[in-house]
Amino acid sequence: MNKNFFIMGAPNAGKSTYLAALWHSINQKNISTSLTLKKMTGDLQYLYQLEHKWLEIEQLERTVIGQEKMQLILLLTDGECDLNLEFPDLSGETFQNIYETRELTVELYEKISKADVILYFINIENIFPAELISKLPSELRTEENLLKSRKPSEHDPTQVQVIDLLQIILEIKREPIQLGIILSAWDLLENNESVNPKKFLKEKMSMLWQFIESNNKKIFTKVWGVSALGGKIEDVDRLLSIEEPINRIKVVNEANMVSQDVTSIISELSGELYDN
Ligand SMILES: Nc1nc2c(ncn2[C@@H]2O[C@H](COP(=O)(O)OP(=O)(O)OP(=O)(O)O)[C@@H](O)[C@H]2O)c(=O)[nH]1
Ligand SMILES: [Mg+2]
C-alpha cells in the first residue's frame, strides 16, 4: 500500500520532533510498535542527526526554507502488509508564506495533489486566540497603526490560519481527504492523559472544530494529543533518566487510550477502512 502523507504546521509546531521520534521508534526493537522500518529513501544522515538530538534532548534546529526535506520515503511494515510512506519535513515558514502570499510552488501543489493523508501539527503552547481591537490601548487604535503593524501569520488567530490552509488543500484535492491533527507538546497540559484531544480542540479552537464538523463529508478527521519529546527541553535530566527513550513518548487518542507508539497514528490514518 502506498500512502503519501503531507505534513503541515507553523514554525515550532513539532513536525521535526515527531519525525525524530518516529525514526527512532521504527528502528528500535525493545518496545513493540504498530509499524517498523523495512527501507528508507532520502537523506538518511538527516534522520540520524534528528534522532541523535532527540535521544540527547537537544534543541532541534529550525527547518528552514532551502533545507527542507521534500523526499523522505519510508517503507514500513506491520508484519503482514507493507506501507510506503512519503513524509516530507517542511519549514513552518513555507505554510506562513502560503497563508500570506496566497501563492504555492508547483512542487508543493503536486505534493498536495497526490497526498492521501494530511498530518497537521499544532503546538498547544502556540494557540493564539483573536484579540479584540477594543482591548488594545486606545492610542494604538489608529487605522494607520493597525494596518502598519499587521503581519498576518503573526497576528491572525491560529485557528483562522489552519482553516485557511485546509481550505486551500480542499481546493486542490477536490475529493475527500483524511486529516490527522496532532496537538503537540501535550505534556504541557496538566492531567494530560485524561484530557480528551478532540474536546480540547473543540474548547480551544472552536471555529476549527466547527469547520471540521461541518465538512465531515470532505475531511475525515482524527485528533491526537502527542508528546514526542516527553517534556520540555529544560527537563533534560528527568527525561534522560528514563531508561528506554521510547517510553518518554506519549500518544493520547480520541478514546483517551495512552501509548508510546507514534507509528499507531500513521497506521490508523493509512487504514483502508477509515471510518468517520
Ligand atoms: N514540551 C514539549 N515541547 C516539544 C515537544 N515536541 C517539540 N517540542 C518543542 O517545540 C519546538 C519546535 O519543535 P520542532 O519539532 O523543531 O518544530 P517544527 O514544526 O519542526 O518547526 P519548524 O522546523 O520551525 O517548522 C522545540 O523547541 C521543541 O522543544 C514535546 O513533545 N513537548
Ligand atoms: Mg522542523
Q: What is the strand tally? A: 9
The parts where pLDDT drops under 50 for at least 5 residues are none
Helix content: 25-40%
Bound molecules: guanosine-5'-triphosphate, magnesium ion
What is the name of the CATH topology?
Rossmann fold
What strand line-up does the widest sheet have?
2-3-4-1-5-6-7-8-9
Lay out the secondary structure.
Blueprint: E1 2-9, H1 15-27, E2 36-41, H2 44-56, E3 73-77, E4 82-86, H3 92-101, H4 106-113, E5 117-123, H5 143-148, H6 152-155, H7 158-173, E6 177-184, H8 197-204, H9 206-214, E7 219-227, H10 236-240, E8 250-252, E9 258-259, H11 263-270
Parallel strand pairs: 1-4, 1-5, 5-6, 6-7
Antiparallel strand pairs: 2-3, 3-4, 7-8, 8-9
The structure holds guanosine-5'-triphosphate and magnesium ion (MG).
